Amino acid sequence: MLEGWSRQQRSRLLAEKTVKDRLRLVRRFGEYTNTYPWEWTPEDVEAYFAAQFAKDPPAAHSTVRGQQNDLEMFCAFITDSRYGWSTACLEEFGQFPVQVCHDWNTADHVAEYEGRPGRRALTYDELQQLFDAADDRVEKKRKLGRKGVLAAWRDSVVLKSVYAYGLRRREASMLDIPDLRHNPRASDYGRFGALQVRWGKASRGSPPKRRTVLTVHELDWIVPLLEEWVDEARPRFSPGKHPALWVTERRSRLGVRRLDEVFNTIRKLAALPEELELHSLRHIVSA
Known about the structure:
Number of strands: 5
Oligomer: single chain
Number of helices: 10
Strand content: 5-15%
C-alpha cells in the first residue's frame, strides 16, 4: 500500500520531502494503533490526534490539520476501487479498509493564518538592534584576533540581504553568484541591481518558483555591502568554482539550518525576544 501510494504521489510530481513526510506519518499512525490499515477506525484517528495535542508543547494546529489531510488522502487511495486494495483485503483478511477521516473528527481550515500567535514581526528599533549586534560581533572578533571574523562578516551581510530582498531561508541559501543581476533602470547599482531568486516556494506538484527581486532605492545601502562581500570577503574563503553566494569555511553552501543558527546567535547578542525568527525579517512594523 505504501509503495503504491508513494508511486502515485511521485507520478503527480510532488516533492520528495512531501512524499517521505507523508509515508512517515502513515507509519507512525500504524505504530500508534498497532493495527493494519484495513483495521483502522475513526476512533483511532481521534485518539491519535488527541495525543498530539496532549504533548508538551502541543502540536501546532496547522501541523495537525496537515497530518489529518495526509491521512485522509492515504485512506482515499487504499479505498479507491481503481487500485483494488479493498477487494484484495476482503479476500485475504475478511476485512477491507474504510475512510476513517471525516468532517466530524478532523479540523476545518477556516482561518487564513494558522501560525503560532507568539510569532510576530520585528519593529524598526529591533531591526536596528539586530544589525548593530551583527556588526559588533564582527568588530569584537577582529579586535580580539579570534577566528571566525570572515564568518561573522558573512553572517552580518546575510541577515541584511534577507531583509533587503525579502528572502525566505531556502531562497537565501540557494543564491549563486550568477543570480546577481543588472537592472537597466538602476545602472548605478551595477551587478547588484536585482536578485534572480530561483528557489522560491513551490506550488504543490510544481518546481520551485522563480522571481526577480529588484534593489529598491530605500534599501540601496545593501549594494556596497554585497559588493564588499563578493569582491573582498568571499574570495578569502577560497571557494574555488563553488557558485554559492554564501559559502562556509569548509567551502560549502551555507545551509538553511545554519541560517537559523546565525539568526538565533545574533538575536541573543541583541537581547531580542525568543519568539523572533529569521522569517521575521520579511515582516517589519514601525516602532
